[in-house]
């Protein structure tokens, strides 16, 4: 079976933006089919002839913070059980939050399969917040801008090394 890559993290960090960028062209083809939802959770990804399934987690519905936290926990659990590689996304504009620490605590046991991704680094200069994320104990964060496409190639190089 294809390796499974799951994207986890608190709301608004850019999970779906990264999912769409990785799945990009393939999703666009599927969406030409009438009746296919735009809020896809699974897609096929490909990098340098390595094929994988990419999973977005987290819905689009607004929630209270309690509900968000319990959903994040269950998403992290599902990712740990089903994914070969977990992309844990944090927000380089916002800096570290208690929700990031909570998810990191769950993921640290599976450290070798987790890639810490610092999104919203839209220029080649690392923000001061970047260094805070070392506190999560998940190694070096990989800086990317999912919306600009910066660093996503380096990220995918790292992903396929873990298969
Ligand atoms: P999700 O809730 O984690 O799925 O986050 P979304 O992908 O829906 O993105 C949340 C917000 O962050 C949206 O307004 C995005 O346009 C914005 N965003 C996502 N990636 C980036 C990025 O790389 N840089 C910046 N500046 N904004 C981003
Ligand atoms: Mg989303």
From TrEMBL:
Family under the similarity heading: Belongs to the TRAFAC class TrmE-Era-EngA-EngB-Septin-like GTPase superfamily. EngA (Der) GTPase family.
- What is the source species? Thermohalobacter berrensis
Query: Could you tell me what this protein is called?
Result: GTPase Der
According to the record's subunit comment, the protein's assembly and interactions are: Associates with the 50S ribosomal subunit.
The EngA-type G domain sits at 3-163
Q: What does this protein do?
A: GTPase that plays an essential role in the late steps of ribosome biogenesis.
Provide the residue positions that the database annotates as binding GTP 1: 9-16, 56-60, 119-122
User: What range of the full-length protein does this chain span?
Assistant: 2 to 164 of 440
Q: Which gene encodes it?
A: der
